[in-house]
Amino acid sequence: MITIKDVAERANVSPSTASRALRQIGYISKETHDSVFKAASELGYIANSTAQQLKTRNFRTVGFIISDSNNEYYFSILSDIQKMLTENGMNLIIAFSSENPVDEETCFRSLIASRVSTIFFTPTNDQNGEIISVAKKNGIKVVQLFRDIYSDLDTIINDDESGCRQAAETLLSLGCKRLLLIDVEYLYLESERVRPDRSTGFLQALKGSGAEYDILRFPLVDYDVGVLTQRIDAFRPDGIITATNIAGLEVLTHLKDREHAGIRFITFDDNRWLQFCTLSAIRQNTAILTDSIREAVCTQSEAPRKVLIPQDLVLRRDALLD
């Protein structure tokens, strides 16, 4: 863990002077100020916002950066993660990046300053390697969830490719001939870089089937629902797969006042409202996910490890909309 003493030694000043320079308290010469800030930057030091608390208590705290506060899936797993961490004597700090790289960096800095032991995050982009490096220099383990973007990090991801292939194969077996996949469009990531990829599994299932298909990438935030509804009306699918609950809800809202007899529907991220409405869904294995997070927090490894979480199709009412 990089400390103020390390910064002071690098800048050739006392720890108190380094601290005052970084906090901009009292008179500090420009030469000393610049020297201290340069040393802090080179070492990857971020001021500890909980230093006084840490003097009397050893925190074992985990940070969780949620990329999309509107995605019900994240909140559905948080209670299980919180329970698991509590049972292992740990605390949880939640931050929100809002699918924005700048907010993601801010979240990292806040969690580093809070001296968490591990940071879990869903990458919003591939340009925040510098702040990730700062976290690692401070002895913090960084684990990416649900999107495999940084090759040098431990990774826990859902097998979306296999799940989408299973969903498409099921719709084909139920007689669908015109399939629409509403996948995710990322604001700061090329979709082709996100693996596993639902579209890949979708196309694998359709290969040689003779079915017609369309793929629409729908933004996670700041989306235009008109683009979605126009695409549905123009293509007139008899089977629809949605990558998120948000897109799924928009689809159902659009179809409820229109003639949609015979349309079959499957969405990712099973939850209680889908169960209540008896709608078919791809369900992630929360038990394996939670156990993988516990293992990532509690164990150390030299080489990055990748965990692929299997998914199951929960078929309700033969996936048919009423």
Protein described:
By secondary structure, the protein is an alpha/beta fold. The protein has 3 domains: 4-43, no CATH class; 51-158 and 287-309, 3-Layer(aba) Sandwich (Rossmann fold); 160-284 and 312-319, Response regulator (Rossmann fold). It is 43% helix and 20% strand. The strands form 2 sheets. It has a 6-stranded parallel beta sheet. Strands 7-6-8-9-10-12 form a 6-stranded mixed beta sheet, sandwiched between helices. Helix 1 crosses helix 2 and helix 1 crosses helix 3 (30-43). The chain is elongated, with a radius of gyration of 24 Å.
Give the topology, please:
Elements: H1 4-11, H2 15-23, H3 30-43, H4 51-56, E1 61-66, H5 72-87, E2 91-96, H6 101-113, E3 118-121, H7 129-137, E4 141-145, E5 154-158, H8 160-173, E6 178-185, H9 198-206, E7 212-219, H10 225-235, E8 239-242, H11 245-255, E9 264-268, H12 272-276, E10 280-284, H13 286-298, E11 306-309, E12 311-314
Parallel strand pairs: 1-2, 1-3, 3-4, 4-5, 5-11, 6-7, 6-8, 8-9, 9-10
Antiparallel strand pairs: 10-12
Helix pairs in contact: 1-2, 1-3, 5-13, 6-7, 8-9
Q: What structural class do you assign from the helix and strand content?
A: alpha/beta
Uncertain runs? 50-58
* Overall geometric form: elongated
Strand portion: 15-25%
Give the count of helical stretches.
Answer: 13
Strand elements, count = 12
Helix proportion of residues, in percent?
A: 40-55%
CATH topology of the largest domain: Rossmann fold
N/C terminus separation:
58 Å
Work out the count of structural domains: 3
CATH architectural name of the largest domain: 3-Layer(aba) Sandwich
Question: What is the H-and-E element order?
Answer: HHHHEHEHEHEEHEHEHEHEHEHEE
Largest sheet: 6 strands, parallel
Question: In CATH's first tier, which class of the largest domain applies?
Answer: Alpha Beta
Mean pLDDT: 88
How large is the radius of gyration?
24 Å
Give the spatial strand order of the biggest sheet: 2-1-3-4-5-11
Q: CATH homologous superfamily of the largest domain - what is it?
A: Response regulator
